[in-house]
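Q: What would this chain look like folded?
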Amino acid sequence: FDLLLRETIRYAQRTKANFTLNIVELEGFLGVTMIMSMIRVPSIEDYWSNDDWFGQKPFVRFSCYKLVHPL
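A: My prediction, written as structure tokens:
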């Protein structure tokens, strides 16, 4: 993960993106991305829904919601 983190930050600096990232956020983002590829719901907001209709609440507790779905 360290190499991926360093290269991501280096790329952000080269493209002049206003961007910060730490290892915990990177691991969380990659984990959420992998789970989202396995569990399909109608819209991205449904991954964080408190509604039991889908029988899944995979990301309600994750703080990396901000990374995937900015306010």
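Helices lie at 2-14, 23-38, 65-68.
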